[in-house]
Amino acid sequence: MWFRTLLLQLTWRFRPRLGIHDVARLRMRVLPTDIDVLRHINNGIYLSLMDMGRWDLLLRAGVWQRMSAAGVVPVVASSTMTYRRSLQLGQRYVLETRIIGYDERSVYVEQRFTVRGEVYARGILRGAFLRRRGGVVRTAELGELLGVDTAALPVAPWIADWATAVALPSTRAEAPSNWT
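Now predict its structure.
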């Protein structure tokens, strides 16, 4: 991932600018470091690659720079992946990233791994934004910072239901590991 991160950092300025709600497309190839013993992308690698896609979108939309200046950092709060077909060693694919909605506290992103326009895997994630000095940034505040009307893109009901169903207690509440 370090090589890809460095490459993205050096090349994002040469790719077309994007609006924050556009689909970002990042062309990639399955590398030897991406695969497991079955010679396809390891399930954990998908999540790391998705980080690259979100960073690409934020950089090319010009919002990463504003967030950094304001001391705001994105974090993944929850995610889900669905796998349809395997990506094999050496195979070319496109990672597509798009913001699909907002609620009061979170930004929801869909990411697709595609080959010739066909979806091989899809991830949905709920992201939050934190202040480097501590505290959560609500999406209304984030919208003001980035010049985005977050209320104009509400999250789909099924995604809101998913987010509620998989949520863990607040970090201020207890979360005992009881297998009952």
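The first helix runs from residue 2 to 11.
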